[in-house]
Every structure is written in C-alpha cells, then in structure tokens.
C-alpha cells in the first residue's frame, strides 16, 4: 500500500491513571489513500478519537503517551517528527475538526481572526489578504453574508454555523487530509445532513482525503469509501463500504449493523449487542469482544485473535470468521 | 455546589474523611495548625521561663540552646513570649470565627432565604466590602480604642459580610432543590426548612470560608497590634512583639523575625487547611473573596 | 462601553451613600465624648470646646448629618485636627508617593503573579508546579509589614545595599526611586503576587483543557502562541475579577508599609492619624479610599467586559 497518504502502523497509546496504565489504543493499523474517505467507527471509548489525536500529537502528555507505532504521512513519520515540523503539518497539510462546535472555537476572538490566524501562520500572507481569504472561506462553507460575520464572536452563531466555521479553519490552507472527529454528533438532525453534504461537496471539489471518526453507521454509509471498525482499542474489522454492509465478518460489526437505526427502520426494534464495553483498565484476555460474542469459544478468551485477510481490503480480527459467514442483515 | 455540599452528610462522612486524609494540603495544614495549637496551649510546660521574667544580665541573647528564640531588651525569654503571645492571637482569631459563624450565617441565610431581606442586607454588605478589609478594621479599632474586644469586633465586622455572601450563594442553590420544595409542600415552616434542610447543606462552603477567616483574622490582628490598636495586656500578642522588636532591629533581628515566623506558620497552616477542605468538600468554589 | 461605564457609575451611588453614612456614623461610635478623646489628657475645657465646635458636635444630629453631606458634595471632608489643614488637601499632597509606590507594586504583582501562575499551570503536577504553588501560598500567609522588616534586616542592616527609609520621587531620580521604593513595593506586592498566582494557575488549568486550546494546537500554532494568546485571553476573564481585591489589599497594605519605611504617602498619613486619634482625618481618609476603590472596581468591571465579548456592554451588565 505504497500509495497511502497516511499509513498508521501498530499505533499504541496509553493513559496514566490513578490505578496504573490504561491502553486506549492497542496496536492499531490502517491506511488512508489520497482522495479517499475512510470511516473510523466504534462506540465511545473504543479509542477512535484517541487514535486520531495521537497521530497529530494533540493528546495531553501526560497523562497520554504514544508507546509504539508509526504514522507515516507523505513519506514521513508524524510520531517521530520534531514538534516544530509537526506544527508545520498540523493546520496546513492535515486539517482537523472536532465534535463540539460549541466549545472548539475560542470564545474571545472573532471568527474571522480565528480563520485568518491559520493563513497568516502557514501561508505567510498579510492581514488584509488573510481577511479576504477568510471571507471567501466563510462563503464557501455556506455562511451567509460572510463579510459581515467576519467580526462576529462564536457566541453569536448557532451550533451548525460554528461547525461551518471550524470547517473553514480546517480547510483554510487546502489540506491533503481532513480528520473529522464526530463532526455532526453534537448537532441536530437537519443540520447534520446539511453539514455532511457540505463535507462531501468540499471533498469532491478539493480532492482531499478524509478520515471520518464516528459512532454512527448512517453517517459512515453516506460518506466513507472504506471503513475501519474499532472495538475496545483494537481494530475489529476493515472493509470497503459495500462489503462492510453486505458481508461483515466480525461478530461485533454484525452486532453494530443490527443496532443501527436507519431512517427507514426507526420503528423497528433495534437489535442491540448484549453486555457493554469492557473496562479499559482491566480488559478481558484474548479477544476483547469474546465476553459479548455469541460465537466465542474457550480459545477466543485465551489469546488475541490474529487478523485474517478475507479479501482484498477486507480483514477481520476474529478466529471464527468461518462461523460468521452466514450473516443476514436485520 | 449543592450535591457537593451533601458530602458532609453522615452517610458520606467516612468517605469524606478518607479523602481529606489523602489530601496533602489538608494533612500539611492540619499538622501545622495542631503544632501551633499544642505549642500555645502547652506553653507552661514547654517554656523554661516566665514570659515576663526579666533577666537584666541576659539582654539581647541570640537564639541558643538555652534561649531557643533568644532574649529581648529586658532579658525576657522570647520562646516563652512567643508561645504565650500566640494565645491572644489565636483567641482573637477564634472569636472572630465564632462571630462569623453566628452573624455571617444569620445574615447570609436570611438574605438567601427571604427575598425581601436580600436587597437591603446585600447592599449593606456591599457598602462594608467597599472598604479595604484591613483598613476598615483599622478604622473601627482606631475609633473604638485599643482593646481585645475592639480587635474582635473590628475584624468580625470586616469578614461577616464576606461570609454572609458565600452562605447566601449556597442557600440560593439549596433552597431550589427538590427535597426542599417537597418539605415545603408537606407544610414545613420556614424556620424548620432553613435550619433542618438548608443550613446543613451549606456546611461545606461555610467550613472552608471559616478556615480562611481564621487565617485572615490572625494576619490582620497582627497588623492591628503592630499599629498599637490591639490590646496591651500583660502578655503581648505576636503583632506587638514584632512592633517592640522593630526598635532593636539593628541589634537583635530575632526579636522581629521569630514572632513573624510564628504568624506565618499559623496562617500558612490555616490556609492549607482551607485549601484542602475546599478541594475535597467544594472543589468548584473559586478563590475566596478576601 | 461608555454607556456601560456610566451605568455602573450610577449603580455605585447608593453604595457610596451607605459607605458615607458608615463613615459618618463611625465618629458616633467613639466611646464617651469624641472631643475629649481627641483633645487628649492635657486639653483644657476651652480647647475641648473648640474641638467640639470645629467638628460641629454641638449641633443637633440632623444638622450634623446635613452638614456632612453638604460638605461632602463640595469635596470637603473636614479639617485634620493634627495638621490643621483640610483633609482633602492633605490627601492630595500625599497621594503621589502612594500612587508611585502602588504602581510599582502593581507592576511587580502583574509580572511575578502572572508568570508564577502560568508556569505552574503549564508544568501541572511537576515539582515546578509544587514549588510555585507553595511559594504563592507562603506569599498569602506572610504578614507584609513583617516581610518589610525582614527585608530591612537583610538588605539594609546586614548587606547595606538599600536605605531603610525615605522616598525619592521618580520624577527627580529614577535610581533614587528604585533604591527607596523597591523594598516597600516588594513587601506590598508579596501578598498580591500570591493571590494572583493562585487565581492565574487555577484559571489557566481550567482554560488549558478546553477544546479551543486543542483547536489552536490543531492549527499548528507554536506553543507560546497557544498559551499566551488563546489560553491567556480566556484566563484573563476570571483573573480580572480579583483585580478589585488586589487593589483593596494594596491600599490596606500601604498604611503599614509606608509607616515602616517612612514614605510620605497617604498610607503613612492615615497610619499617623490613627495613632493620634485624628478622627476627621480617619473618617475622610476611609471615605476617600472607599470611593477610590469603588472607582477601581468600576475599572475592573470594564476590564472584564473588555476581556469577555460575551458580556453585553450595551445592556445592563
């Protein structure tokens, strides 16, 4: 996979807690190719956000620490890079938007300044030019009468508008990769759809790659070319989008699909997975999903399952893929 | 704030106690305060000499094995004088805290509970707080004339509005809690609700505030005494010791330095205690108003 | 902003009225006959009578109160018994030294208080944080007059670097000002440095874990821009709420500190008035200081509105 824009290998991130060390991301590998949209899906606590933040060096250290692995972006390992060089990539080559538009913008600076700041830093352009670009960006992300809103403060905008501003900041320097961490979760449904459309449009226009982190299968379905499913800090399954929905092979993915309400199915009873996410401080030995898995046998709980390649671009970390073959969507 | 105030309920008392013992600030503060109190109350056992015994041949002795804190211009043992002198400082601090606990709580509870009283009481406290605290105490003490009770009254007047504010804020929160409404619906009277349901839930911020008031009172009392506005009894307080030592600052530094250290240790201990209590009981409480 | 300032100014008027009433009432609290107390033990009956008449104590209560407010509105705070000059002119004459000293102390406070607090927050839970926190706590626990005396012992008596007393106006000699004012300013600033460091640390800790700080880092901004621009601009909001407190501590402290270092400022003036029972001076001085502090608090409110765009300055703050 030499054509990967971002290639994450064996990423392992831990948090120091009162009761010792908790591994939040455990030996995670995946690729994002240029122009591709990859979905990283999992429940909250599955380590998907931590993985993304690890790549960009945005986790507070301490308590967090990247213990192992590499994240090669455009041929260079972000995890080994001096802080100064990593800063030149953050905001310039890789943009990021976060889950909480209400709190992710600085409340004491006008939004125009928060966009222009990035431009002045990375593109070395003057104040006037940066302001002009900021207006164009606000316009592009669908903020009406952009030139008049430039000096607005975040508290004067709605949640959806704030997330548009966040997108404008992330896209200011035409990044090659956009990492979007639950970009629509905090917003209400109609706004969610608009923002997803906007992101889709922008991706098509700019040809940037995208790593979309979400817990929502519906969002993934609309968006991703390829999906990486995470469970309890590990990759459970990776597959092209059609394969994932048609023929998932990891029991967790299967459960997840069963538990996904689609718009057509809101009234149907959701099939949820019994049990809950394991305690990250004391994960079960062997396969993390084994205690909740209807296919699990004694050996599943004994050793970490190897990743099995099922087809091109389709892998699953499960010993019982033979048994999970006959899956029927709920 | 209210749910945190509940940590003082007996059911949680043991857990709160454990948390306090694990809090370094609290433990350090408790240690210092205990040390100071023990030294002061065991002064007759610890000190070799009477605090006022003059040994004219022993004037201006530097701190040594015999005179731990040296001797003053009249050959009096500074160790005894500092230990005995602390009694007055602590006593004044204690009474200021007591007056705060009574009048500050009353003022805050009334203002917080009875809407009609809120505005006049809070305007009065605004006006009192418009003066710089120590300056107001100095002014009151200057006008009432120097005595121990003057110092207590002056310092109490200064800190009661501040205590009242903190209590009022807690009462405003607690009085809107469900069980208070339930109690009112069940026909409980104002007095019952206030004393049985609301005040017990305001204990945490009150306790924190009172430990800081104690610290401020000891510190401010020293200023009053230093300016000659405290009491001049047979055994002077720490502030007076410093003020006396000041005249001999060139010959005998210890006369000034040692009583000040005693104040610093006491106030540091009380501040640590307050910090620890706040961390455990009421973590959301901001830096105190003075 | 102007409308906001005027509105706040109007809000202070009722408080100022109560404040002046307290100041007026204070003299009524003097045990016994104030004129006798003020006259001292050696005063003749005629002298005491004179004092009583000067203070208007022979007039009925409502006349006294009316005269007090009438004079107050004309900026007349009465006459000092000790100096035989109007209280206001005595204060104005002594004000420059106090202002210079306060400005110096405030500068020290801002530099060391903010720096200590910021560094402690950035090195949270390390020995640097521990040391800074401990120093700040010691700062708020030391009696400032004692600290002044200890500095005299060390820097004047033992090392002989700085004079023990006196004051040189910076307009005359900057070096002279620095030589005479550094110890008193440092003694004055210590408590406030502690206060400011404590609030700055907790405000910065709170702010540094906010999402927008992460956003700033995600933009690739250098760490010092993240801290000094994005974090500090937000931390300033809680920090300015203690500005009033800091001014109040400063004014209280200047009485003792100016007395110790014999600085011809307002603090020493008041300190002396207190020792000599110069009641009109005490009363007028307290009132002046309270009014000044209210004005400074107004300034703090405006700073607050300046730092927090969410405060609606055009509406009632």
The CATH level-2 architecture of the largest domain in chain C is identified as: Orthogonal Bundle
Strand tally of chain C is 0
CATH topology grouping of the largest domain in chain C: MetI-like fold
Query: Per the principal axes of the C-alpha atoms, what is the gross shape of chain C?
Result: globular
Rounded to the nearest angstrom, the radius of gyration of chain A is 20 Å
Residues in helix, % of chain A: 25-40%
| Main β-sheet description of chain A | 8 strands, mixed
Largest beta-sheet details of chain C: none
At the fourth level of CATH, the homologous superfamily of the largest domain in chain A is P-loop containing nucleotide triphosphate hydrolases
Would you write up a description of this structure?
The complex is a heterotrimer of chains A (330), B (290) and C (317). Chain A has two domains: 179 residues, Rossmann fold, CATH 3.40.50; 82 residues, no CATH class. Chain A has eleven helices and twelve strands. Chain A has an eight-stranded mixed β-sheet with strand order 6-7-8-3-9-10-12-11, sandwiched between helices. A four-stranded antiparallel β-sheet of chain A has the order 2-1-4-5. Chain B has 290 residues and is an all-alpha fold. Chain B contains 13 helices and no strands. In chain C, helix 5 crosses helix 8 and helix 9 packs antiparallel against helix 10. At the B-C interface, helix 6, helix 7, helix 11, helix 12 and helix 13 of B face helix 1, helix 6, helix 7, helix 8 and helix 11 of C.
């Amino acid at each position: 996979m030499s054509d990967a824009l971002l290639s994450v290998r064996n990423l392992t991130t831990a948090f120091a807690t009162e009761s010792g060390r908790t591994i939040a991301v455990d030996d995670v590998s995946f690729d994002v190719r240029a122009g591709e949209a990859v979905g990283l899906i999992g429940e909250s606590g599955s380590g998907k956000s931590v993985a993304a933040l690890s790549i960009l060096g945005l986790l507070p250290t301490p308590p967090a620490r990247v213990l192992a692995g590499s994240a090669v972006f455009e041929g260079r390992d972000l995890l080994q890079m001096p802080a100064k060089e990593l800063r030149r990539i953050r905001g310039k080559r890789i943009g990021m938007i976060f889950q909480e538009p209400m709190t992710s913008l600085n409340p004491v600076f006008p939004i125009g300044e928060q966009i222009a700041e990035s431009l002045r830093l990375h593109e070395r352009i003057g104040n006037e030019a940066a302001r002009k670009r900021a207006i164009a960006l606000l316009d592009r992300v669908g903020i009406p009468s952009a030139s008049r809103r430039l000096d607005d403060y975040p508290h004067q905008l709605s949640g959806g508008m704030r997330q548009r501003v966040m997108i404008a900041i992330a896209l200011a320097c035409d990044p090659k990769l956009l990492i979007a961490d639950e970009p629509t979760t905090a917003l209400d449904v109609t706004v969610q759809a608009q923002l997803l459309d906007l992101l889709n449009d922008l991706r098509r226009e700019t040809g940037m790659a995208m790593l979309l982190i979400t817990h929502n299968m519906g969002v993934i379905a609309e968006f991703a070319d390829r999906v990486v499913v995470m469970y309890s800090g590990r990759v459970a399954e990776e597959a092209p989008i059609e394969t994932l929905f048609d023929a998932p092979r990891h029991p967790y993915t299967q459960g997840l699909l069963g538990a996904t309400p689609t718009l057509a199915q809101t009234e149907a009873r959701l099939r949820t997975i019994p049990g809950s996410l394991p305690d990250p401080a004391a994960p079960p030995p062997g396969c993390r999903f084994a205690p909740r898995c209807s296919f699990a046998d004694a050996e599943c709980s004994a050793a970490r399952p190897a990743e099995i390649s099922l087809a091109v671009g389709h892998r699953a970390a499960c010993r019982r893929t033979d048994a999970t073959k006959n899956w029927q969507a709920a | 704030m209210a749910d945190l105030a509940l940590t003082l309920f007996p059911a949680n008392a043991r857990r709160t106690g454990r948390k306090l013992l694990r809090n370094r600030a609290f433990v350090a503060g408790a240690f210092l305060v205990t040390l100071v109190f023990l030294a002061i109350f065991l002064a007759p056992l610890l000190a070799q000499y009477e605090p006022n015994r003059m040994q004219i041949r022993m004037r201006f002795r530097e701190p040594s094995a015999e005179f731990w804190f040296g001797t003053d211009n009249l050959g009096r043992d500074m160790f005894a004088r500092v230990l005995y002198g602390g009694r007055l400082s602590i006593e004044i601090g204690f009474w200021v805290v007591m007056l705060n606990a009574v009048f500050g709580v009353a003022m805050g509870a009334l203002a917080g509970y009875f809407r009609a009283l809120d505005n006049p009481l809070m305007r009065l406290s605004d006006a009192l707080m418009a003066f710089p605290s120590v300056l107001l105490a100095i002014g009151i003490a200057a006008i009432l004339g120097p005595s121990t009770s003057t110092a207590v009254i002056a310092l109490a007047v200064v800190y009661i509005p501040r205590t009242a504010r903190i209590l009022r804020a807690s009462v405003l929160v607690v009085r809107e809690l469900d069980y208070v409404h339930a109690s009112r619906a069940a026909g409980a009277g104002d007095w019952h609700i206030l004393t049985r349901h609301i005040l017990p839930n305001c204990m945490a911020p009150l306790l924190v505030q009172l430990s800081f008031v104690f610290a401020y009172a000891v510190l401010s009392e020293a200023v009053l005494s230093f300016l000659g506005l405290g009491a001049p009894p047979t055994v002077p307080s720490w502030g007076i010791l410093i003020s006396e030592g000041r005249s001999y600052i060139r010959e005998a530094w210890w006369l000034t330095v040692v009583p000040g250290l005693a104040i610093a240790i006491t106030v540091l201990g009380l501040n640590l205690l307050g910090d620890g209590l706040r961390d455990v009981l009421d973590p959301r409480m901001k830096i105190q108003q003075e | 902003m102007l409308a906001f300032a005027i509105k706040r100014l109007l809000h202070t008027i009722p408080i100022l009225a109560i404040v002046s009433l307290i100041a007026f009432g204070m003299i009524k609290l003097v045990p016994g006959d104030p004129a006798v107390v003020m006259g001292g033990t050696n005063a003749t009956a005629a002298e005491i009578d004179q004092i009583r008449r000067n203070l208007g104590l022979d007039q009925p209560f409502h006349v006294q109160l009316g005269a007090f407010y009438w004079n107050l509105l004309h900026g007349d705070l009465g006459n000092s018994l000790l100096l035989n000059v109007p209280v206001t002119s005595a204060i104005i004459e002594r004000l420059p030294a106090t202002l210079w000293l306060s400005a110096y102390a405030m500068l020290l406070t801002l530099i060391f208080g903010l720096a200590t607090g910021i560094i402690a927050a950035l090195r949270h839970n390390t020995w640097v944080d521990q040391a800074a926190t401990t120093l700040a706590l010691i700062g708020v626990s030391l009696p400032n007059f004692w600290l002044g005396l200890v500095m005299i012992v060390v820097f004047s008596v033992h090392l002989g670097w700085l004079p023990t007393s006196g004051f040189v106006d910076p307009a005359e000699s900057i070096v002279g000002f620095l030589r005479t004012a550094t110890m008193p300013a440092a003694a004055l600033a210590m408590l406030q440095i502690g206060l400011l460091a404590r609030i700055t640390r907790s405000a910065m800790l709170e702010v540094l874990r906010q999402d927008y700080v992460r956003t700033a880092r995600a933009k690739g901004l250098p760490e010092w821009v993240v801290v000094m621009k994005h974090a500090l601009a937000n931390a300033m909001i809680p920090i300015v709420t203690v500005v009033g407190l800091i001014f109040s501590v400063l004014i209280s402290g200047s009485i003792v500190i100016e007395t110790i270092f014999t600085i011809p400022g307002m603090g020493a003036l008041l300190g002396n008035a207190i020792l000599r029972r110069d009641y009109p001076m005490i009363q007028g001085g307290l009132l002046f200081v309270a009014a000044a502090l209210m004005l400074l608090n107004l300034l703090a409110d405006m700073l607050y509105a300046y730092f927090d765009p969410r405060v609606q300055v055009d509406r009632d703050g």
